[in-house]
């Protein structure tokens, strides 16, 4: 049975629709809680797939959060072995850093729903299911990253040039959140209440209304994207 490990920082930023996708495939899934994991005991090559989830800290906060350096070492070894890995939001930033790219504050915080702008390569990749004519995307980030060497850019937004990339076909990274399940986003609104209250132009009621408007379509398109990419990995 194929195995999936998900690296999680906060409980409400979980696998979302990926939970159902892995279950339908009969893949065994477990979470590693990044802040309390025994990183020295973890084998970065042991699992068929690693999913690196989001969270409210930054890659460059490693002096405050030692888990970041442990996680980067874990991911660097996985990248060197070219093992399948999926990065989501902070997870994408961690993957980019493990591939040698710089992670840094974006010029503007991106919170809420909006379309992606796909590159030519994006339209020929599993990311094509997120084309702006098909769905809006959910965003929640204040940092961004450089494009790693040998990575192929798949998508951007007006305020964030690097929204999605693929590396050697086995590593897929999204700065945005294609994994979210609409019904779970109320937990995000609670968990990020302080950030919402202190971010100009961001308010709970519009976020909730847009989730009701766009959430179901993103779930549908997300399943199409992830299933296509997972099929290409030929796991199991």
Task: Give a description of the structure.
With 236 residues, the chain is an alpha/beta fold. Helix content is 32%, strand content 26%. The chain has a single domain, classed as Class I glutamine amidotransferase (GATase) domain (Rossmann fold), CATH 3.40.50.880. The protein contains six helices and ten strands, in the order βαββαβαββββββααα. An eight-stranded mixed sheet has the order 2-1-3-4-10-9-8-6, sandwiched between helices. α2 crosses α3. The model has no long low-confidence stretch (mean pLDDT 97).
What would the average pLDDT be, to the nearest integer? 97
CATH class: Alpha Beta
Q: How many angstroms does the end-to-end distance come to?
A: 7 Å
Strand order of the largest sheet: 2-1-3-4-10-9-8-6
Query: What is the count of helical runs?
Result: 6
CATH superfamily: Class I glutamine amidotransferase (GATase) domain
Q: What portion of residues belong to β-strands?
A: 25-35%
Q: Whole-number radius of gyration?
A: 16 Å
What is the gist of this entry?
The protein is an alpha/beta fold and 236 residues long.
Note the topology.
Layout (H helix, E strand, L loop, with lengths): L2 E6 L8 H9 L2 E6 L15 E4 L14 H14 L4 E4 L1 H9 L4 E12 L2 E2 L18 E9 L5 E7 L2 E8 L3 E4 L10 H7 L1 H6 L5 H30 L3
Parallel strand pairs: 1-2, 1-3, 3-4, 4-10
Antiparallel strand pairs: 5-7, 6-8, 8-9, 9-10
Question: What labels would you give this structure?
Answer:
single chain; about 240 residues; alpha/beta; Rossmann fold; eight-stranded mixed β-sheet; 6 helices; about 30% helix; about 25% strand; globular
């Amino acid at each position: 049975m194929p195995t999936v490990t998900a690296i999680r920082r906060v409980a409400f930023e979980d696998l979302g629709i990926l939970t159902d996708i892995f279950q339908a495939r009969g893949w065994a899934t477990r979470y590693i809680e990044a802040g309390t994991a025994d990183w020295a005991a973890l084998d970065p090559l042991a699992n068929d797939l690693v999913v690196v989830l989001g969270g409210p800290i930054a890659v460059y906060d490693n002096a405050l959060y030692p888990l970041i350096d442990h996680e980067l070492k874990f991911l660097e070894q996985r990248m060197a072995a070219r093992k399948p890995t999926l990065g989501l939001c902070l997870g994408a930033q961690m993957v980019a850093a493990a591939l040698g790219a710089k992670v840094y504050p974006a010029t503007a915080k991106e919170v809420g729903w909006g379309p992606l702008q796909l590159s030519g390569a994006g339209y020929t990749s599993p990311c094509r299911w997120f084309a702006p004519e098909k769905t809006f995307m959910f965003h929640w980030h204040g940092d961004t990253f450089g494009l790693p060497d040998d990575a192929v850019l798949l998508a951007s937004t007006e305020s964030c040039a690097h929204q999605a990339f693929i590396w050697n076909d086995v590593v897929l990274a999204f700065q945005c959140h294609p994994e979210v399940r609409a019904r779970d986003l109320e937990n995000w609104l609670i968990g990020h209440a302080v950030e919402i209250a202190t971010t100009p132009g961001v308010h709970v009621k519009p976020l909730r209304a847009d989730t009701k408007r766009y959430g179901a379509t993103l779930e549908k398109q997300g399943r199409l994207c992830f299933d296509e990419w997972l099929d290409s990995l030929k796991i199991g």
